Amino acid sequence: MSHEADPPGADGSVTVSRDGAVLRITLDRTSRRNSLTQLMIGTLVDALTDAAVDDSLRAIHLRGAGDHFCAGVDWVSINSHGGSRPRAGDLVRRIPHAAHRVIELVGTVQLPVVCSVRGWAAGFGCNLALAADFSVAATDAVFWEPFISRGFSPDSGSTWLLPRLVGLARARRMLLLGEKVSGTDAANWGLIHHAVAHSGLDDAAEELLDRLANGPTAAIGLAKQAMAFGQHATLPQSLAQELFNLELTCRTGDFKEGLDAFRQRRTPKFEGR
Prior knowledge:
Blueprint lengths: L12 E7 L2 E7 L9 H15 L6 E6 L10 H4 L11 H5 L4 H10 L4 E5 L2 E3 L1 H8 L2 E5 L3 E3 L13 H18 L5 E2 H7 L4 E3 L4 H13 L3 H14 L4 H15 L3 H11 L10
Parallel strand pairs: 2-3, 3-4, 4-6, 5-7, 6-9
Antiparallel strand pairs: 1-2, 7-8
Helix pairs in contact: 1-4, 4-5, 5-6, 9-10
GO molecular function, one term: catalytic activity
Protein name: Enoyl-CoA hydratase
Family: Belongs to the enoyl-CoA hydratase/isomerase family.
């Protein structure tokens, strides 16, 4: 799909559409490599909040329009106060309900989130891709955490996500030295799910989305929740959480279908219920 460049300084948009049981969320501000304005972040928060309580959805797809995924947050536009100095504590008040809330929602929504990355994934854009359950990138995509090189400390979950995904040594290279990482290296490091040739990115993402959207949605969501819980829990606590989730999933129609399919030696047809 082709996208015309938006005029310089345009607010851009986030397009939200349904494709069967898949929610498609597209960042569209191509003249700024899809860097996010305050309006775009608000739309992201609203879309993900709505998706979290929509029982008809079974997967979420995040992507960027044009040649890039997302070059981060447009701090110039977001912090423009018409020449007036912002109130003390401005960032502390706003960001938890904006950019940081997007990362939280991607990580906690009980639906699988797939991210397609081509071109730049920088700053918030990088962390959005890392927060997704699965990110598929073009081999020549660029993952970059430019915070230190811009003179401020990292945000949007980078200091939590990176050490857990790639270890402290590589996290330091990205966060303290500002090293750029290609899609190929990101996949080899375990930073993302998979890297493919640029021409095969859409097909790879669709194959993954189709698999997830036809899976046992409740079980997938609760497995995602349990893995997140386990990042800060003891083994006994995680076992208890798993047991609670197992009790819930054993009451779903998909559980019954899975057992029936096993007995009948056929592929299950999950309905997400």
